[in-house]
Amino acid sequence: MEKVKLALIGCGNIAQVVHLPVLEHMPDVEIVAVVDPDKRKANAVALRSHVPNVFTTLDALLASDIAKDLHAVDICTPTDTHRPLAIQAMEGGLDVLVEKPIARTAKEAREMVAASEQHGRKLMVGMNNRFRPDTMMLKTFIDKKELGKVFYIKSGWLKQESSTSPWHQQKEKSGGGVILDLGIAMLDLGLWLLNYPDVLTVSASTYHLHTKTVEDSAAIFLRLAGDITFTTEVSWTFQRESDFYYCNVYGNEGSAFINPLKVMKRVHGNLINLTPAKTQTPVSLYKKSYENELRYFINSLKGLVPLVSSGQQAAKRMNVVEAIYQSAAKKKEIAIAKK
Predict the structure, then answer these.
(1) Are 256 and 147 a contacting pair, CB within 8 Å?
(2) Is the dihedral of CA 4, 10, 15, 21 positive or negative?
């Protein structure tokens, strides 16, 4: 295909601020439609981004004349809609990119994966943190064994408040709180850096300091195959001066850190700084992560690269997420059965 014809589903903040501006600047992408139940908002977004078609439902899009030339949809809607929209799109012969988390539950995720397999469609989940230039560089150092054997990853994402979208704090829509908002991204990042070792056990604590139906803070401890320990702390309400995102990786021959990126290795008894000279600002890293993610999805549709951040991987992560919630509820460590 010379141009990938794409429809954007959902005209909320992430779509307007990130997805549309990035996709608009890709010469091999044509955004042919936007879909949102709020027709006034959809019309405004379409007008601003020069998108020719507006629909209030995916049904209407699939029933239209433009559907036959459409290749894929980019789903940027509340989590409770991910399963029905993705399945409907794949049944209609379209590939799917869906924002994180894939779904509210592991069951919903498995149903989405089953639909992708049944209809032979690509299903990619937006995990932009693994597409940050600093995390990709970090993974290169790990894969090349520059740090030796990695045995411990300590990570966290602490924000002063939750997303501006109120549905994030409505469990029936979001499926959960900060764990499904920030924790899922840190879990994905750690497992991706380590090339997906099995998660053996989970121990977690959650807190409802300023929220009612969902957790606003959590501390998570995972034991992984290969005698590796992974921890992460996530919060919408930690009392800090500013937001903080970090990932520290420790190996028996060196260590590496983001944010900012720093790599240290012990050579002949001396600790050597291997950090690349070029650095980028947090804003630049955030923007680049989405540019890289969306470019990768488009290239996968064109057959140039294999699909990554697949629905299958996301469904396995949701099994871990459910064990995290179970551990917090029961206040004990939970073993994860292999499936």
Answers:
(1) yes
(2) positive
Angstrom distance (rounded) from CA 221 to CA 34: 41
Is the pTM higher than 0.85? The answer reads yes
For residues 213 and 170, what is the distance between their CA atoms, to the nearest angstrom? 7
Query: Which residues, other chains included, contact 171 with Cβ-Cβ below 8 Å and sequence gap of 6+?
Result: 177, 213, 214
Tell me the pLDDT tens digit for each residue of 156-172: 999 976 555 788 888 99
Strands of the 270-273 sheet, one edge to the other: 270-273, 262-267, 254-258, 244-251, 150-158, 228-235, 217-224, 199-207, 334-335
272-308 burial string, b = 16+ CB within 10 Å, else e? eeebeeeeeeeeebbbbbbbbbbbbbbebbeeeeebb
Amino acid at 79: T
Distances (CA, A) of 295 to 24, 100, 291, 311: 11, 17, 6, 18
Confidence of residue 105 (pLDDT cuts 50, 70, 90): very high
Query: DSSP letters along 142-176, please?
Result: HHTTTT-SEEEEEEEEE-SS--SSGGGG-HHHHSS
Nearest 5°: CA angle at 326, between 322 and 329? 140
List, for residues 108-129, the tens digit of each pLDDT value. 999 999 999 999 999 999 999 9
Name which of 129, 178, 139 is nearest 287 in CA terms.
129
What pLDDT is stored for residue 162 in this prediction? 57
Query: What are the Cα distances from residue 316, in Å, to 188, 311, 334?
Result: 10, 9, 16
Reported as a single tens digit per residue, the pLDDT across 205-256 is 999 988 889 999 999 999 999 999 999 999 998 888 888 999 999 999 999 9
Nearest Cα residue to 289 out of 134, 123, 140: 134
Task: Look at the block and give the residue holding tokens 């990938």.
Answer: 4
Contact by Cβ (8 Å): 310, 124: yes
